[in-house]
Amino acid sequence: MAEFPTVHDLADSSQERVLQTWAGLGYYSRARNLHRAAQLLASLPEWPQTAEGWQELPGVGPYTAAAISSICFGARVPALDGNAFRVYSRLFAYTDPVDRPAAHRFFHVEALLLLDPQRPGDSNQAIMDLGSNICTPTQPNCEACPLQSFCEAHRRGIPTELPIKTPKKAALSMDLPLYVTLHQGHVAMVQRPGSGIWAGLWCFPETPVEGIPYHLGLRTVHLLSHRKLHIDFLEAEMDIRAILPEGLHWIAVKDIAHKGIPVPVRWWLKEKNYI
What we know:
Layout: H1 7-12, H2 15-22, H3 28-43, H4 51-54, H5 62-73, H6 82-91, H7 101-114, H8 120-133, H9 152-156, E1 172-183, E2 186-191, E3 202-203, E4 215-223, E5 227-237, E6 248-252, H10 253-256, H11 263-271
Parallel strand pairs: 1-5
Antiparallel strand pairs: 1-2, 2-3, 2-6, 4-5
């Protein structure tokens, strides 16, 4: 908010600056989507007022679209986040997995009937707060819940058994070597492609510079949404500045922290006392 106080400030910025500001937060696709959405909003004569209109923007899914349109524009549409799914699954004693499309359809229809047509945004926020503060995952405070007398899970004595979710698949383990080529306070880096892991960020390359002997330096494990990366940093300190292949650039180590970089690279910099 300090760096980009308005949508127009964000829209007018370069993607590089947005990624630099986002650095360290992970999920960099969110930053790219936020930037693109700001550019689209800045070009519109007026902002969307319906959930369908908001959902046309990059990075805006059903929950975000429903929350914005109901809270800001009075659209009567249920905002279904994790808290809402928990509240509604207990209220209706919904015993199928809540992370399947059928559950989304069911809760959308049932929750719509419960929204105050005059204050849908307040209704949505009330459900979110109820799930956050009272209808909590492991120790719901049913005695303080204003919906207790209507709650089917409470009547059956099974509130902590709901919601039911599909078991997550184990993260796929993956070995990832990163080659760190250093020369007089500079390091060879590459900007990663626009898709895939760490899209658009500056990183150490995954392949060595030909003819340079590397040794194993630091090692770490980094978790992504569906992957477990076992990262080896292969390091080399050069006396003579090597000619880098196309795509690699010499960057001053002191400047790396100000670029958009992956969390493991930032970790390496901290471990080496560069930042």
